[in-house]
């Protein structure tokens, strides 16, 4: 059996598709929002809001922090206690995406006494960063 050598240039080329030309209009890229005093936003806005409300975020509760030398860190073993800068009864910070959103008290969850929870005592305004000692 004999094979013929075919060069890449000899291969048939697929037909090129012609691009479809369409004039872009501003309406293609924006949504109009019609609001009324009784109905609020339109269905499109409701869908957008539903998409945003369905996003999962990670929540961290900062109990406190500590600072120590690496030499002391390497000496730690099972049963060692690391004292934190927060005292018992002081509010803890609730952090979402690096921003403090609330403060609260650590509690034991009523339905499951093996789990901790946070009872919110303060909702913090937008743009508050965690206290510097929280991540030292």
TrEMBL record:
Membrane topology of this protein: Peripheral membrane protein
Pfam families: FliMN_C
GO CC, alphabetical: bacterial-type flagellum basal body; plasma membrane
Superkingdom of the organism of origin: Bacteria
Domain Flagellar motor switch protein FliN-like C-terminal: 51-124
MF terms (GO), sorted A to Z: cytoskeletal motor activity
Primary location class: membrane
Biased composition (Basic and acidic residues): 1-12
Keywords from the UniProt entry: Bacterial flagellum, Cell membrane, Cell projection, Chemotaxis, Cilium, Flagellar rotation, Flagellum, Membrane
Biological process, per Gene Ontology: bacterial-type flagellum-dependent cell motility; chemotaxis
Region Disordered: start-end pairs: 1-24
Localization per record: Cell membrane; Bacterial flagellum basal body
PANTHER family linked: FLAGELLAR MOTOR SWITCH PROTEIN FLIN (PTHR43484:SF1), PTHR43484
Function field: FliN is one of three proteins (FliG, FliN, FliM) that form the rotor-mounted switch complex (C ring), located at the base of the basal body. This complex interacts with the CheY and CheZ chemotaxis proteins, in addition to contacting components of the motor that determine the direction of flagellar rotation.
Family statement: Belongs to the FliN/MopA/SpaO family.
Protein name: Flagellar motor switch protein FliN
